[in-house]
Amino acid sequence: MENEKGRIENLAKLRLILSVEGIGIGKLLNLFTKFNSIDDIFKASVTSLTHVDNISLVLANRIIKTKQNYPAFLEQTFAEVNKLKSLNGDFLTLWDNDYPKILKEIYSPPVLLYYIGNLDLFNTECIGVVGTRMPSAYGKMITEKIVKELVINNITIVSGLARGIDSIAHNTTIANNGKTIAVIGSGLDVIYPPENKKIFNQICQSGLVLSEYPLGTKPDPQNFPKRNRIISGISKGSLVIETKLNGGAMQTAHFALDQGREVFAVPGNIISPQSEGTNHLIQKGEAKLVSNAEDILCELNIKKSPSKITSAEILNLNMFEQKIFDVLNHIPKHIDEISNETTLNISDCLINLLELEFKGLIKQLPGKVFIKNL
User: By CB neighbour count within 10 A (0-12 exposed, 13-18 middle, 19+ buried), where does 367 fall?
Assistant: First the structure.
């Protein structure tokens, strides 16, 4: 087994080769095909380097010249790995046994992954859940509903820790004792958005946080499209819940399509900007229309788990609670509307709505608006 010092030395060599202008994933893979290991690439002569596909004499000389920077790269890499360890983190390379096999199948897989958490989640059934940073009440409700159903069926939820749908997906998974993977667009020591620090720490404890960016990397806009290819890349399918036509979730959907993975979308209001993207994906036949987790599980041939939700959850309602519960559905209703439909006064409605909320059967939204908790 390769010792830790050797791992870090090889990481430094790998990062040094990747720092050479003109070396990308394609040329790096060509080098590995010829030389089998990063150590052999590092020891190669100019002449032998030029025998590799797409490695010109100029590029070969550039590789040789860059090797003189190795001591500085090694010192920097040791310092970074020590900091990574202090965060309970570690790293993977494309050639490590723990690297997710499904991710190796995509075009331009990340050569390096930094992580905190449980790598065993790569061996579970993973579904990506993405969407707008500004979801409607409908989008929030649908995310909670479908994610909860997926979690009950032992699905690992993959998302990007962003505001909105991503955060709801992660939080719903954690609340239902499920497993979740967060793929972020910054270094593992840069939590973005900062208000998601609590979710980040919870996922580190019970799930997995991934990044292809070194420690200290800020969440620059250009990082997120690359991040999105990993979300779809480690998932058997990706579910899009509310997004504009130019939203980041559309990028994830298109990456999934390019990777030969399934795309699922929740239909929405045709005049709502948040539903432009999902409705477009469905209209173009690029995504399967879904309304529940079973639609996704059937399409992916994943066996449905025996239901853990029983009718006991909606028993023990008094006649007033039942009356109110019966008039609520997935469309938010204002207290005045509930009062009119049930013929109960507003005071009685509020008392019984509170009881229903305590029982987890309904949710209160801002402005005295209520919705059934599906």
Answer: exposed
